[in-house]
Request: fold
Amino acid sequence: ADLRRHVRQRGQRAARVAVALRLCRLLQIVQVNRQGIRADHGDRAAGVRAIDVGGAGGSSMAAMEAVRAGQRGDSQTQAVGDLFRAWGIATPISVVEASVAQVPLIATGGVRSGLDAARAIALGATLVGVGFPMLRAASEGDAAVTQFIEGFLLELRVALQLTGAASPAALREVPVVVGGETRAWLELRGFGDHLRALAQRG
Reply:
């Protein structure tokens, strides 16, 4: 269940769900609100054209709703939002898990640099989405947006050069070694063979 629905007012929830459903029907894209996605979710995505994995790691919807609850004096909802502020599946894990659906994947949630974008694409994402850094730049004006985008693209170009990839799409052919907690999680979820295949590409 969508965690965010438990920490927002009912009227706002109904309006947002209605808009999201209309958009999803038009675009046939499944989007997950910053909780990430598991392989079994991807398996149930029949008929969709793409999945926005909406992984944890970016802006926390629960934390935002906790702030709103605090502003209106709803301490119980604020406490729930604070408790679950870090809930979810990280974006890199979500990208790997959602790959079972065999549709284009949009990596969102914690993508803050061109290097983050390169990593997501190398793991299997088709596109990336950037939220907070772009909004922060936009709050400072057009020049800041231009500076952010130019820096982001430079970081992506450097990642391409260092990996020997001729294009962003070519990142999906370079070897990727996943380590740490991400690897441990994916191994436990049964993706060990997939991880070894990623490491032996090229």
About this structure: The first helix runs from residue 10 to 27. The CA atoms of residues 24 and 30 lie 7 Å apart. The mean pLDDT is 81.
